[in-house]
Amino acid sequence: MSRIALTDVARQAGVSTSTASRVLNKSQVTVPISEHTRTRVETAASELGYRPSAAARALRTGQTRTFGVLGNSPQAFWLWSEGNDFTSEMMRGMMQAAIEHSYHLTLLTGETAADRIPDFGMVDGILVLNRDLSETPHIAETLAGSGKPVLYLLDYPETQTCHALAPDDIAMGQLATQTLLQAGHQRIGFARTANWDGIFGRRERGWQQAMQVAGIETPATWSIEPDGAAAIDEENLTALVCANSHIARAIRKQVSAKVPADLSLLTLVHADTQGHPPADLAAVTFPLAEIVHTGADRLIRLIQGETIEPQKQLYTPQYTSGPTLKEHLS
Hints:
By secondary structure, the chain is α/β, with parallel strands linked by helices. It contains 11 helices and 12 strands. The radius of gyration is 26 Å and the shape is elongated.
């Protein structure tokens, strides 16, 4: 069966093709179209099963009703899904917002993807899911000059005025450290990998600030990597703030100390849709699904021309107790 064309709708409604187009596209007109005519056109379109051509609509409006989701590589969309539902929560939030606004999304990956953004006529705006902007600062500069609405999720250029939604990483590090201090720990280390310096760096600063307020120095040897478990014994650490759940689990497997009897672990991680952290860890969490859905919704509103002042909206973290934290008795 051939595709139903606009001319078919116009013929069945008994109007010109231009009138049918103005009705179905809700165009502004100088000569009013009667409600009777509108009803005939809409009824004809419904009866025939007419669907407007996306390509024709893009040519007419200059928009594709598609936003791009930019990651460093394909792995950006599944990298941290092992052991939790990070990727599914992220994709669910973006797709839900797209469906609510009748938009599509396109995944843009590869190290040079951002350099090609100005040529990406297929997208009307860009949602940046780049978890390590500290290693690719040129991306923010390129996107700022793309002429398209851009919104950052989870990580963001700290020195650039932009639209961004993210957890308050510094507050996460502070809350985790304060929780361990209140549990009687003083020799508290911070565990992270060398990369992701934007997100992990802010979380580490939060740990340092909370320790400083408590009057406790944080020597460099108290900041360790997942494969540096020996430093835990050497420094006589009784607790660790872990930059994410994968690091916490890696350390738990490596250390000779018993968790939590000899070593407490408190991880910084996203909560699921119901607000629950991983069941096997004590955690300070942020609402990933809410951040992603709100971010995608806001990007679409920007694409549609709504005036929204650029801001970095940071979400307050929450602590949830778990089996890896125990009070420390001096």
